[in-house]
Design a protein that fits this description.
2 copies of one chain form a homodimer. By secondary structure, the first copy, chain A, is an alpha/beta fold. Helices cover 38% and strands 17% of the residues of chain A. Chain A is globular and about 65 Å long. The model of chain A has no long low-confidence stretch (mean pLDDT 93). Chains A and B meet through α9 and β14 of A and α9 and β14 of B.
Chain lengths: 430, 430
């Protein structure tokens, strides 16, 4: 029997990805169906549903699920779930589709799934505003203040408000994983939940921690992983390889940094590297919960949650993504149906940094020294130094990783310069 | 309701220490009872029973308990317990005492307890040999090889075999805590389980780790505590302040080292310092289990178990004290009565050291580098360097602690030299 945490929802891994002859037949059928264009986020969600990463979801949410998720952190049936997973369509498409229809979901000319329409529903702008507040507003933040800046500054809210008002709900059959498995830029790191589970089991692990990454892996991330390594059987360094904000560092550079760091500074038998196909939702604390939820499906039972996990600008307090784990349903109480409860627990770790007096990495919980003794590691600060070609302070990062990042930023600058020269000389900018 | 782990045994803290008028009356009665001289170990056990540190024990074990503890790691009633806690008496005393009698237990002229004799029993030399093998022999060690060296080299076995063959069992009323609360050399660090629980509760802790110390606190101990601090609400640095082997460093020096280290390198609000009144049993892995068992009574639910925890010479493999936690009753299975199960779990941590390439403290689980990159921290090595006045390598310890230890060893050397001079000049040696 597996010693790993069971998938979320009590139904095992709910796999909706078709393969082989089944896929071929479904694809053939799909080509004859009405086509609906999906967003990048929906594409990522579909692949996750396909590979069981979003178990027990078997498709896109109904309005009852949407309402319950926003309000209670559960699906309508009471199963814990932290964020809406929905299929938005244009008014025209909605008008052309009836409950009971099957439609094909495509993006950039590729059919990603078929959807059996079980429900068609609308969300008014007010309902989308309500969703935005429920999902994206920081704990204790004033509603009025939130709206003063949310539309301008919160990419998650922007995505919700940019969505249409019409939605289709129902189970999907997923037909593609995009190029995650085949494109060499992902270094073979894209893994399905069944694959990570098989690796963990082969290694005999039962306590598995996950490190969430959407930025290059810095020394503070390394330290979080190492704290987890000392108290768990193993760690998966698990990178978002879907879409980020413009200006963020692309997956291939980030994966190369991780690979280099693992190569030089980790004991390989205790570490697994992986990538998952989602886009960032920029949902702050709720996104932290989503990270734990799908990690449970990957076989992880300890989700590392550090300082400002999945943070967005100044929308959340530094440890709000830790605190939210104490506020969700079924925590600290008997759950009548353990399948409904989130079983992947947070591994809450404080702000970490290098401290000269401690003579090593430390955290606010372990180090009593002052600001002047510490080299505070922040991705933002490092990004600034590297993109300006400035010196990076000692102990701030690992040299081998800084080389990769410096190289990336130098090329970026060169590209920008070339573009600017071309623009100046009248050539078209791409 | 307390968020702390309940005391072991399901009966709350079983307190047998009398105080105030009750104590005065019992002491008066005791002075008229037959006096029995107890060993240093029995004195420590009595104080632990008195203050609830050995809950649910209310006195010394019967032969059925002894047998079950040795064989099954449980009292006769099925409650987990790792080592015998017995009252040995001389043949003469045994002959003079009958079941139903009350006797007074004294040491160095002080009455420590009264014992209501519920059972009188004998252990043959063969039974004591059996106990020695069950309790002290390393896992997988050959019985013959064990006995080749045990009598010579194993202080735990020596104590068992030096015990008499007659025993008294029954509940006790404890009348004294010795000088632990009053002697300034303990720096006020002796705390009862009810006291540590009150401190933890006041601080709102629920996950509390304990660091066991019987040697000066070195940097590797500090690192273990800090790993625990990053993942628990708090840590108690809990020193044995009873008797050790001759040549070990006395409690007052060890407590001063800890105090200095906590002062300079810990965030005080997350740390409690404490002392407990037991002697070392030198029982290796079984002693590790005892450490967890009584820590549960102190309110601790994570017992830090590092490399060679409670090790004795070469009798045990380096991580045997971690592995034994997987072999005791009720682990990984439903226990029909949770009171019977050990609820304080091990926090297993690998061999730790300073690594130049990692640029800080690391463990075998986190550091992939080689021997030459590491400063391996061993108490034995440090003791040797300090007692010979040799240099201590960089990163090996904290300067403030090394000063205290150097000072201790220098005075020790001076004392030895004075003794030798006195001996040479014909003065009596003390």
């Amino acid at each position: 029997m597996s010693k790993l945490v069971p998938p979320h929802g009590g139904k095992g891994l709910v796999i909706r990805l078709l393969e082989g002859a089944e896929r071929d037949a479904e694809l053939k059928k799909a080509e004859g169906l009405k086509k609906i264009e999906i967003s990048a986020q929906e594409k990522g969600d579909l692949i996750m549903i396909g590979i069981g990463g979003f178990s027990p979801l078997d498709g896109f949410m109904t309005k009852a699920d949407w309402k319950s998720v926003c309000e209670n952190f559960t699906l309508a049936d009471g199963t814990f779930w932290p964020v809406p997973v929905m299929c938005s369509v244009t008014d025209e498409d909605a008008a052309a589709v009836n409950v009971g229809d099957e439609v094909a979901l495509e993006r950039d000319g590729e059919i990603f799934a078929t959807l059996k329409v079980e429900e068609k529903f609308s969300l008014s702008d007010d309902e989308k505003k309500w969703e935005s507040e429920m999902v994206y507003k920081g704990n204790g933040e004033d509603s009025e203040k939130f709206w003063d800046v949310a539309l301008e500054d919160h990419p998650g809210v922007q995505m919700v408000m940019a969505r249409g008002n019409e939605y289709l709900a129902g189970p999907v059959n997923v037909l593609s994983e995009g190029d995650y498995k085949t494109n060499p830029k992902y270094l073979g790191m894209y893994l399905r939940p069944a694959e990570t589970r098989a690796i963990f089991e082969e290694r005999g692990w039962s306590t598995v921690a996950a490190m969430q990454l959407r930025n290059p892996m810095h020394r503070s991330h390394e330290h979080l992983c190492k704290i987890a390594l000392d108290v768990c059987d193993g760690v998966i360094i698990h990178s978002l390889i879907g879409n980020l904000k413009p200006g963020d560092i692309p997956a291939e550079v980030r994966l190369k940094c991780i690979d280099t760091l693992v190569d030089g500074y980790f004991v390989k038998e205790h570490v697994v590297q992986g990538g998952y196909p989602l886009d960032m939702r920029y949902a702050g604390p709720r996104e932290g919960l989503l990270h734990a939820t799908f990690r449970q499906n990957y076989g992880v039972n300890r989700m590392i949650i550090g300082r400002d996990h999945a943070g967005v600008g100044d929308f959340y307090t530094l440890f709000e993504a830790q605190e939210i784990f104490d506020k969700i349903p079924y925590q600290g109480e008997e759950c009548p149906d353990p399948g409904k409860k989130l079983l992947c627990e947070p591994l809450k770790i404080d702000w970490t940094f290098y401290c000269f007096k401690c003579d090593g990495m430390a955290s606010m919980r372990t180090c009593p020294h002052g600001k002047d003794d510490r080299v505070i590691l922040s991705g933002t600060k490092l990004r600034k130094a590297l993109s300006e070609g400035a010196e990076v302070p000692d102990h701030f990062g690992r040299d081998e990783v800084l080389v990769i990042l410096r190289d990336y930023y130098e090329n970026l600058t060169e590209k920008v310069e070339i573009k600017m020269q071309k623009a100046a000389s009248g050539q078209e900018m791409k």
